Amino acid sequence: MVIPGPYEQSLPAVPEWLNKGDNAWQMTAATLVGLQSMPGLVILYGSIVKKKWAVNSAFMALYAYAAALICWVLVGYRMAFGDKLFPFWGKGAPSLGQKFLIDRAAVPESTHRYKNGTEETPMTEPFYPMASLVYFQFQFAAITLILLAGSVLGRMNIKAWMAFVPLWLIFSYTVGAFSLWGGGFLYHWGVIDYSGGYVIHLSSGIAGFTAAYWVGPRLRSDRERFSPNNVLLMLAGAGLLWMGWSGFNGGAPYAANIAASVAVLNTNICAATSLLVWTSLDVVFFGRPSVIGAVQGMMTGLVCITPGAGVVQSWAAIVMGIMSGSVPWFTMMILHKKSSFLQKVDDTLGVFHTHAVAGLLGGVLTGLLAEPVLCRLVLPVSNSRGAFYGGGGGVQLVKQLVAAMFVIGWNIVSTTLILLGIRFFVPLRMADEQLVIGDDAVHGEEAYALWGDGEKYDANRHGWHGSSHPISDEPELSNHVKGARGVTIQL
């Protein structure tokens, strides 16, 4: 048989195992997920917060993305997807050598066996190099930390955050990733987490809520009024997040296959449904639609579908969208206001509701709605199915609940220990003096450096352009304009 030119082996750059289509899609999917963080969440965080926290919030996301990459290639990837050290953790090692990165991708502990020891599902070996898999999985690790940051915006000490990022990635994220994806005990037990409903969203929501508890609250004035400084820019960041989710769920099968197509379609269906349901509830109960509410509804829909995007039918994606647009809405808008405990913990962006609640909801609904034929396309355990399809599917729901309890427990304990350790060296919360001022006190920078920001016009100080005052005679501008740094625009 004559092999077409594009698929022809061309050593050493194109070995026989390399599928160029799969490799191209995996790198594209990884980049789409990366765009969710950089610049998606950087823009979203920088615009959804109060103006005085725009720079700090965006910088926390920017720093987490960069720091996560270095930790990931130094030790993190192989702790999450390498050889087994414990049933819940892999052996850490660098992922930097050319011999490792140009070899065919593989997840060594993913071979699934029957109880008698015979092989049921072979080891996961995508048709592209390890470098592509390392890069793809890094994007998931990075966005988890950035989502977590949403709980502590507006008051966490930036030095404490800089220490927290690598420690949490190594001691918390890698445990969930190995247990559910890398061949750990939950993976082989048959728990379904298609693309991170538990590993990413439940983890970030619970860890974020725990961190918010230990860091402490914002100033009372910030808690009472924390309006977005730029709603249109917030929508731009949200749009990048939504579109990037096609790579998030479409890249999870590690191939450009049928499951990827189903996952991408279901992702968008669920997000759209959830947005419409959330907006409808805002109109019914509050009399008008909210742009912020629409973004929250979009987010909960994307999160809810993630654990089952490739294993549920598209009508089930609508059901999941209805649930994700209503249950987190209820916990955020109704339950939160009635619970003294939830009000005590200052979760800045409500990450507990949009990620922990929505992620847990998605995992439970996957345990109910996972379709047997679709499950066979991607899961290592044969005969996996949701409870609604009978045939022992009720066991799947139990597995989903047990796995959720493990993820919740591990994140509470690990996040607590990490923050208590950091607290020995630096305060977790900024000083009140910094909290009053915001970005200028923390970074010496402000988001909007425009002339006259918050000042009355003073001809003697700011200069005058008029027919009776020649430009050459205008007074020199002050070197410091209150509330503005950088370029001064003369109007």
TrEMBL record:
Domain of life: Eukaryota
Residue ranges of coiled coil: none
Subcellular location: Cell membrane; Membrane
Family to which this protein belongs: Belongs to the ammonia transporter channel (TC 1.A.11.2) family.
Occurrences of domain Ammonium transporter AmtB-like (ranges): 24-448
Protein source organism: Nelumbo nucifera (Sacred lotus)
Name this protein carries in UniProt: Ammonium transporter
GO CC, alphabetical: plasma membrane
Keywords from the UniProt entry: Ammonia transport, Membrane, Transmembrane, Transmembrane helix, Transport
One example GO MF annotation: ammonium channel activity
Gene Ontology biological-process annotations: ammonium transmembrane transport
Annotated gene: LOC104597316
Annotated transmembrane regions: 24-46, 58-80, 133-153, 165-186, 198-216, 228-248, 254-278, 290-309, 315-335, 356-381, 401-426
